[in-house]
Design the sequence.
């Protein structure tokens, strides 16, 4: 949960650390970014630095010393002056004292997981709302003095889950700020936060994480090799948590299957039986997300072939382990209309989500790609 654990987000990290070094700590901060972009991780690193008794100065700004009592406590999220608010499961529990034993155990496990990895946010089973009782309890706790005599930090995860009543109660807390207290709202849906609340916060928009940073983090954590990391990052949409979830699927195998489909489409006259069999395998179960991923992998592969055809065999590509195969493909189909081919793939994804039968969609796509690619090769031969 130190600044070194943040994936990418160098500009935002630098801004937050300057707040500490300049002594301009916000009373209310809104961190808005897509799920997995690192808003919660940034909030925790910021909080840990603020409660540290002797922050150390490194090249990029203040950081927790990791040796003082506050740092030892905050490292495991057990610091009494760092309070994390999350939605509680449906029921009568509006405060910590009302929680059932099994919920308390789930919270403890989630806190341990988040302390180890700040990209694993606390999300309780059946919990969708932060209710007014939680906000009232928060207000009561803030009226008390700090137990350790330092700054107190409140982090409200998925702040958009506050009910209307809870939001109105929280607004009163913002209107009557407490000295030496910083409240951090974390959300991926800032439009659901009351304007009267967001207007009282300093808002920082957390951008999606760069693909390179996601890939580096996946490799550094030993989650996959470089090739799979690059493939996964291309589909993560700037979210590290989405990238980790994608790793549960064997993307290399999916890539091999969809490229095999393309190659089969380009074979001689007897290609149809094999093509129909491969399409049936891919479309089995009508898993739209899986089909979308595989078509995305095919698009990436063709983009790489296009880059090699345009730039040469040393072009920068994503599928580096496929360079030799891509060079051969580019030699054979280098004159192809790759933009049109990619448009065909994108249209196929849309049709899958419009509930067009996936086998029909995939077969139509394959035959269209065959015409596009062979037409380009015939034109290339004629001009030669």
Sequence:
């Amino acid at each position: 949960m130190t600044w070194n654990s943040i994936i990418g987000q160098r500009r935002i990290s630098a801004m937050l650390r300057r707040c500490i070094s300049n002594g301009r700590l916000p009373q209310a901060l809104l961190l808005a970014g897509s799920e997995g972009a690192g808003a919660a991780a940034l909030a925790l690193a910021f909080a840990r630095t603020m409660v540290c008794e002797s922050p150390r100065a490194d090249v990029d700004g203040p950081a927790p010393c990791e040796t003082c009592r506050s740092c030892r406590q905050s490292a495991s999220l057990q610091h009494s002056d760092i309070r994390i608010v999350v939605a509680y499961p449906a029921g009568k529990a509006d405060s910590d004292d009302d929680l059932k034993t099994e919920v308390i155990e789930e919270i403890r496990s989630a806190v341990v997981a988040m302390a180890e990895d700040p990209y694993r946010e606390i999300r309780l089973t059946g919990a969708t709302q932060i209710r007014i009782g939680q906000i009232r309890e928060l207000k009561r706790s803030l009226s008390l003095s700090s137990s350790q005599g330092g700054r107190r930090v409140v982090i409200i995860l998925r702040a958009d889950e506050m009910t209307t009543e809870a939001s109105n109660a929280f607004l009163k807390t913002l209107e009557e700020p407490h000295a030496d207290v910083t409240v951090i709202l974390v959300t991926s849906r800032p439009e659901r936060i009351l304007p009267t609340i967001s207007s009282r916060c300093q808002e920082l928009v957390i951008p999606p994480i760069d693909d390179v940073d996601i890939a580096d983090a996946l490799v550094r954590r030993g989650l996959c090799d470089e090739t799979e990391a690059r493939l996964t990052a291309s589909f993560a949409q700037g979210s590290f948590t989405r990238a980790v979830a994608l790793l549960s699927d064997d993307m290399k195998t999916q890539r091999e299957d969809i490229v095999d489909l393309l190659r089969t489409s380009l074979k001689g006259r007897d290609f149809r039986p094999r093509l129909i069999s491969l399409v049936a395998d891919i479309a089995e179960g009508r898993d739209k997300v899986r089909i979308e991923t595989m078509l995305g992998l095919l698009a990436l592969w063709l983009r790489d072939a296009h880059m090699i055809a345009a730039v040469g065999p040393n072009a920068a590509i994503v599928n580096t382990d496929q360079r030799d195969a891509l060079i051969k493909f580019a030699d054979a189909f280098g004159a192809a209309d790759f933009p049109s081919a990619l448009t065909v793939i994108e249209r196929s994804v849309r049709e899958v989500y419009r509930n067009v039968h996936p086998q029909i969609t995939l077969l139509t796509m394959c035959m269209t790609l065959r015409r596009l690619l062979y037409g380009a090769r015939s034109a290339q031969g004629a001009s030669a």
Remarks:
- The chain is about 55% helix and 10% strand.
